[in-house]
Amino acid sequence: MTTLGEVLKNLRGKESLREAGQRAGVSHSYLRYVEKGVDPRTGAALRPSPETLKRLAKAYNYPYQQLMNMAGYSGTETGETETNYLYLFDQETLERFDELSEGDKLFIVSQFESSVKYFYNNHLASKEAASGNTPVERT
């Protein structure tokens, strides 16, 4: 199983921690800790905030939701609004959608579809049930 730190280190490639941190708006030392996955003060597993993951996703042009999943966030526990939960890819990626490979397009569409199903089944269905309507699970 690939860890968040391994993915981030791979995405950074040969770029220095200092350069990558500056691009992402995080300190190079914190980025090193995130890549290692350990808080040096406590020795405990390090879990970056959703805001930090959003910055890293943008800097590396990588799907934000995938980083969130690797960090162990489900979407509901982060306190994000429903709109942000479905915001899987930055605007720049969506604007250049036609330039992407067919595989990347299929990946984006499948991630969006699964997010919409998750959102409906976990958010809207419960609201419908609370209002007295019978929710229909989407598959």
Automatic annotation (TrEMBL):
SUPFAM superfamilies: lambda repressor-like DNA-binding domains
Domain of life of the native organism: Bacteria
PROSITE patterns from the UniProt entry: HTH_CROC1
Example GO molecular function: DNA binding
Domain HTH cro/C1-type: 8-67
InterPro entries membership: Cro/C1-type_HTH, Lambda_DNA-bd_dom_sf
SMART domains in the cross-refs: HTH_XRE
Protein name: Helix-turn-helix domain-containing protein
